[in-house]
Amino acid sequence: MLGYFEGYLELKVIHLVGKIYVSNQGDSWAHQRLLGVVLNPNARPQVQGAIPVVAKVRKIPLALQEPVRSELKRLQDLGIIEEVEATEWLVLIVVARKGDGVIRLCVDLRALNREVVVDRFPLPNIEEIVSTIGGAKHFSTLDLTSAYHQVELEKSSQELTPFGTFKFKRMPFGLVSAASVFHLIMHKVLGNIGGVKCYQDNVLIFADTVAELLSGV
User: Fold this and answer.
1) How far from 68 is each of 63, 96, 104, 110, 169, CA to CA, in Å?
2) Gyration radius of the chain over CA positions
3) Entry's InterPro entries (predicted)?
4) Which of 103, 109, 72, 119 is closest to 89 using CA atoms?
């Protein structure tokens, strides 16, 4: 009997995901090529009187050059990065290989972060989140894909992020103000919804009954 119940829940969730996938573009979040994008606002990291920094380019090992080209193409196709010509800033690209062999392209933003004026927005306290759950019996979790890359960078701020011959159109991981910017967006989207708590790109939905949980999802 439990197996049938689990199958029923799985079908309900698949149905809900299908409805979300085709939701209209007027919502706060639009679906674009399997990666969402926040329609408003754009992220605007500000620097005041900073002298542009040009990082020394490091040669990418031969064995990684083809995987790097493929990843750059993927990011470009998703609208996360685009090619750039002349630039005042240039940050260092770092290639990290994950446990499954897939590479991740990181950028060293330490020089830029020293100049960024951070707009602070308090991150939630884990203990406070736990205390609000109360006696809830049913839970569901959501994890946003490439969360920061779902936030567009304001045009002038894109010029602060060039690496090689590309620049970021979306907010890069490693930007000192990224956590505050992203949590403010999540707070605006989910902050007034009961039975939902979020910490960065992790969303927890909780309820006393299965029906309430599915409604929350």
Assistant:
1) 10, 10, 9, 22, 18
2) 20
3) DNA/RNA_pol_sf (IPR043502), Retrovirus_Pol_polyprotein (IPR050951), Rev_trsase/Diguanyl_cyclase (IPR043128), RT_dom (IPR000477)
4) 109
CA distance 165 to 181: 26
Distance (Å, whole) CA 59 – CA 67: 14
Q: What is this structure's pTM?
A: 0.76
Quote the pLDDT of residue 24: 46
Backbone angle region of 34, left / alpha / beta, with phi > 0 → left and psi within -120 to 50 → alpha:
left
Whole-number pLDDT of residue 11: 56
Q: What is the mean pLDDT of the chain?
A: 79
| Helix-, strand-, coil-residue percentages of the chain, each rounded to 5 | 35, 25, 40
- The model's pLDDT over 135-145, given as tens digits with 9 standing for 90+, comes to 788 888 888 88
The count of other CB atoms within 10 Å of the CB of residue 147 is 18
- The string of DSSP codes covering 13-41 is HHHHHHHHHT--TTSSEEEETTEEEEEEE
Distance CA(202)–CA(146), nearest Å, equals 11
Cβ pair 96, 106 in contact under 8 A: yes
Q: What is the pLDDT of residue 31?
A: 47
- What CA–CA distance (Å, rounded) separates 82 from 169? 7
Residues 6+ apart with CB under 8 A from 193: 216
